[in-house]
Automatic annotation (TrEMBL):
Residues 209-247 form the PAS domain. Gene3D superfamilies: Histidine kinase-like ATPase, C-terminal domain, PAS domain. Residues 348-536 form the Histidine kinase domain. It is found in: Cell membrane. GO terms for molecular function: protein histidine kinase activity. Signal peptide: none annotated. This is Sensor-like histidine kinase SenX3. It is a multi-pass membrane protein.
């Protein structure tokens, strides 16, 4: 059952009860202590007055006279008036009173303990007498030989002590009231803060909400990662751990979340998370994956107490795996290239066929035959060179399509092949990605440069692996561009539809995954050199 009370209200009531109980306990202890101190102070004061009376020579002389009462009774009344005590009783060692506030009690025995005084000591006690309960002290009166000649009892009634104690009660009540008000205000301010933070929800509702959030985090197919303002990863779901390779990484203590520096993240992705900038559908290459990242600030929901200012707790980023889509896109682009090449070749072959038909119609049979033979030899030579270098027909078809595309754009694509045999361990899709993007980039650079516009492709395969070199006649690359060329999003061409800056980034990703190397020479155009080992190891990566 969900209780309607919020955490703030519960804490306020609980805190208020604790304050009340605390005040009751402390107040009771303080009350008892103050009362005991009042009685102790009264006893000490009575002891001082009694000792002063016992030390008076008048008392000792009167104790030896025939009529002690006549001398001591006026003296006792004066002391009572000056010292503000309720009674001063001077008596014989046998308890016979010589003085008393009531004249009728003179000559009667003293009510109380006198044994300690008879032995030369002092006794303070609370006992009942003729005036009611009182705090009294009894001391002996000794002569020069130390013999007890009389006893002096001085005291105040309990009623008088209680009146003195009552004078302290307002201060005690003021302290208790101050504690109650202070505790209530502290509880109220704390409750107000918790009400704002928890939005008035109770613990059962928060527990239910956390359960929902936990289920959502583990059920969504997108990766989710939350980073606080100090660069610590406070939460990530299963999909994010799989996409970023975070299984088993970082601290296992939820109170000590790992920092971004402790996690095995790509530099580009770590820089994005640390920057906290707002991004939408940004593509990041991480290892063998192509990720689409969305990132924004993690803000607290607005509430009336925030006055329009919502605190920022960090950033939240979502990750989508786009690897398969990019692979399909590359394959589709390859098919488009081949289709375009076929259309170009169809147009070119139609022109050549018309030429041969015209020569035949003019009766120049031998010239038509020579023209057809030369054309066949040129096409067959390119095909034979590619097939003999790399035993992969798709790769040969790709290069032949790029030759036709380059010809249409006014660029001469020269192909040189060395060696023969297959490239063990290298998938044809990776070869298409690497060679296709390198040729596209080179043809674009050469087409934008001054004539003569040329691209040179060298392919060499042997038992060690495959070497690919692509050299274009475009503009030379400066050192800064060469350093940033393989980062996703960088392009020397103006932005346009279809996206820019992902082709060479995909090339680098594929080469690293295959354990190869990729270098660039920025002098006299751009020259890209790729080496793919025959026995590729995906675990081995080299940074270009």
């Amino acid at each position: 059952m969900i209780h309607p009370w919020s955490i703030a209200r519960r804490l306020f009531v609980a805190n208020l009860l604790i304050v009340v109980v605390f005040i009751a306990i402390v107040g009771s202890a303080t009350f008892v202590d103050a009362r005991d101190r009042t009685y102790d102070e009264a006893g000490e004061r009575m002891a001082g007055i009694a000792a002063a009376i016992a030390a008076s020579p008048l008392v000792l002389d009167a104790a030896s006279s025939p009529d002690p009462t006549g001398t001591l009774q006026p003296y006792a009344r004066d002391v009572m008036a000056e010292a503000d005590v309720d009674f001063v009783t001077i008596m014989a060692p046998d308890r016979t009173r010589w003085t008393h506030p009531r004249d009728e009690e003179i000559g009667r025995p003293y009510i109380g303990s006198i044994d300690a005084a008879l032995q030369g000591g002092r006794l303070t006690e609370v006992t009942a007498g003729t005036l009611g309960p009182s705090v009294r002290t009894i001391v002996p009166v000794k002569d020069q030989a130390g013999e007890v000649k009389a006893l002096v009892a001085v005291g105040v009634t309990v009623r008088t002590v209680d009146v003195a104690f009552a004078g302290r009660l307002p201060a005690l009540l003021s302290i208790g009231l101050a504690l109650l008000v202070g505790g209530s205000l502290a509880s109220w301010f704390l409750g107000r803060y918790l009400r704002r933070v928890t939005r008035g929800w109770g613990p059962e509702q928060l527990s239910q909400l956390f359960a929902y959030y936990e289920s959502v985090l583990h059920s969504v197919r997108e990766g989710l990662i939350l980073i606080d303002t100090k660069g610590r990863v406070v939460m990530y779901n299963d999909q994010a751990a799989e996409l970023l390779g975070l299984e088993g990484a970082g601290s296992k203590d939820p109170t000590m979340p790992p920092s971004l520096a402790e996690l095995p993240l790509e530099e580009e992705l770590r820089d994005l998370f640390e920057s906290g900038r707002h991004v939408k559908d940004e593509i990041i290459l991480t290892g063998s994956r192509v990720l689409v990242v969305n990132q924004g600030p993690a803000r607290a929901p607005g509430s009336p107490g925030t006055r329009g200012r919502t605190p920022v707790y960090g950033t939240v980023a979502t990750l989508r795996d786009r690897t398969e889509i990019e692979a399909l896109g590359n394959e589709l682009e390859t098919m488009r290239t081949l289709s375009g090449a076929l259309r170009a070749q169809t147009h070119e072959h139609a022109n050549r066929l018309h030429t041969m038909v015209s020569l035949l119609e003019l009766g120049r049979t031998q010239e038509a035959l020579d023209f057809a033979t030369r054309d066949l030899e040129l096409s067959q030579q390119l095909t034979d060179d590619m097939v003999s270098s790399v035993d992969e027909p798709v790769l040969g078809a790709l290069v032949m399509g790029k030759v036709a595309e380059a010809h249409e754009r006014g660029v001469q694509l020269d192909v040189a092949t060395l060696g023969s045999g297959t490239v063990a361990g290298v998938a044809v899709q990776d070869l298409v990605t690497i060679l296709g993007n390198l040729l596209d980039n080179a043809i674009d650079a050469a087409a934008d440069g001054p004539p003569p516009r040329r691209v040179e492709l060298t392919v060499e395969s042997d038992e060690e692996g495959l070497d690919i070199a692509v050299h274009d006649s475009g503009a030379a690359l400066d050192a800064q561009s060469a350093d940033r060329l393989f980062r996703h999003g960088f392009s020397t061409k103006p932005s346009g539809p279809g996206g820019r800056g992902i082709g060479l980034a995909l090339v680098r990703q594929a080469v690293q995954r295959l354990g190869g190397t990729l270098t660039i020479n920025g002098r006299r155009g751009a020259k890209f050199e790729v080496f793919l080992p025959a026995a590729a190891s995906p675990q081995k990566e080299h940074t270009p």
